[in-house]
Fold this protein.
Amino acid sequence: MNIAVKADSPAVNYLNAEYGWKSWLFTTDHKRIALLYLVSITLFFFIGGFFAMLMRIELLTPRGDLVQADTYNKLFTMHGIVMIFFFLIPSIPAVLGNFFVPIMIGAKDLAFPRINLLSWYIYILGGIFTLSAILAGGVDTGWTFYTPFSSTYSNTYVMATALGVFITGFSSILTGLNFIVTIHKMRAPGMTWNRLPLFIWSNYATSLIQVLGTPVLAITILLLAAERLAHIGIFDPAIGGDPILFQHMFWFYSHPAVYIMILPGMGVMSELVACFSRKRVFGYSAVAMASLAIAVIGFLVWGHHMFVTGQSMYASMYFSFLSFLVAVPSAIKVFNWTATMYRGSISFQTPMLYAFGFIGLFTIGGLTGLFLATMAVDIHVTDTYFVVAHFHYVMVGGMVMAYLGGIHFWWPKMVGRMYPEGWAKLSALIVFVGFNLTFFPQFILGYLGMPRRYHAYAEEFQVLNVMSTAGASVLAVGYLLPMIYLIWSLKYGERAPANPWGAVGLEWMTSSPPPTFNFEATPEVTWEAYQYHEVNAPEVEVDG
Amino acid sequence: MTADTGLRIVQHDPNLQHHFEEPKQQHEAATLGMWAFLATEVMFFGGMFAAYSLYRASYPDAFASTSQHMDVIMGGVNTAVLICSSLTMVLAVRAARLGQRGMIVMFILLTMLLGAVFLGIKGIEYHHKWVEHLIPGFNFEYEPPQYAREAQILFFLYFMMTGMHAVHMLIGEAMLAVLAVMAWRGRFTARWNTPVDMIGLYWHFVDIVWIFLFPLLYLIGKHHL
């Protein structure tokens, strides 16, 4: 295999090809749109984090002293809505996927560049609706909008928030649609399905969920809005409607959405583990197929959120069984990443530290998911902090770790500058420690019976809650540091060579940052993915 | 790359966007994109069909009783109108493939006319529902009274489903109007007519939704007659 890399970047790249705000706001370049998304989701991440911090400060003491119960209800609702719909769902697909899906398959752009830009504007519009609802006074239904509270009883800004979520859903649909078409139709000559990087496979699986799941959320919110408006509707028990139907329809999207939030992270993991172990991913096709299996089975497990609603016991058994089944492909991935590292030449750069973190934390998050899929155990821990800890281990310990790992891995390519390795390693460590200190005590709290969504709690839970709040403060430092040094690196970072990691993959064969059309000429792929055993040494050293 | 373009003169089809290699790839991408979009539409309407199935199974008698309040004649005429509009749409697509500019415009305008007839009849039906006090949540009085509660669920679904369908028709009409102008200006040729093809797919999809809506909403109780 021949990795021809230019030592120095061409004078003109996608960042300096045009200047001025118009060249950003009207761009159709997938790389620039990815950066627009990067800035916007970072903003939402810190807004959501702010609500989390307020909650953790309130929970320092058993009595409700910082905020009242009503305010607390709004805090956890807005934390959930902002983090899920405005950070986690767009995070890796809309930023790293947008930037790298076309480059990794050797295309000049996504199939529909204008639709790509449209998706960002739709995202911003949805964000404005939701933010204005927050500023106007917030919403207290929980991110799940359960009826009949949301349709009838809540007197907060349910409509504006739900409308924001409805609108943002279309941005997610359009991104997914764009990826599906791009991956099918825009691959470079020789880039067969079996040669696709696993990041592409996982984004493809994610896109299937986005395209098939999100419309169901859209119609569910629309039915909810109509019901709130007309004071009567299909979820209204007064006329024989069933509020549980809302939960079915909501989770039909929102459980698969959990996989929208983790599959792209798994894709990043495959890239990181292969690169920093210098080995082909063990069981490439098993990992690729596991992504699709998760996408398919993930659509059939939603009822495990509803074991205590009074749904049929037989339905619960079916959902329990399938929830165990959906863990299998995830386990395949974890085992295969571990097997990839086995006898690899492992190096400990920052992205790999995040990858290590992901494997450990995702495994804990996944295994506790199996506890929750077990009906009897679920009834014991339903609506306790055990559930909160479980999904934060997957979403934050998994997805946010993978996102940060991916950002560090591809930062040199995206902006043409290296980040400061020492600071980055330090903050990766801080994130890992802070995360565990925040969320591990919550497993114990939940198992001991502390319910979620309350602003006050019994005295005996205080020690663990103080640990959790202390951890959250550490975690906040761990998240602020990268923002500071990454911005610093834009001006002061070392200039990045085309391939700082000695990685394989088309994105490393073009300059850093890439030219507007990604490659000087359309590449022809004649090799399999992850041919690390054929690369003797990195072509370009970090220090040049 | 941008710096290069000044040095090379690249000759290609003006309708070929720069990021595609050839017109065939561009057309295939558009087609796949449209089908993927229609899949999202199926899921969108699917939510309402699922709710319909649940409540119809739960309240079969109340649902059957609503048929006497539905105007089967108007619904039937509308079904025929929409099927005809699918025919004129497909004739427009054929005309586009043959590059017959005048025929494209004519068939698109015919399709729009039939769509407008459908929406007009639908509007009259909505008005009748209002007069007959069949709007759930605003004015609802129902005969026979023992079904008054559950029948509201069907009417709620009726307005949501036909309403969403009508919104899709309106969007279709707007897109057809753009197509008609583009066709009039001679934008479509035998070589490039992808938009006509794509809007055609959309239009057929919207028609098919109605093909399911009509029996499910209008004819529930008819087999008792």
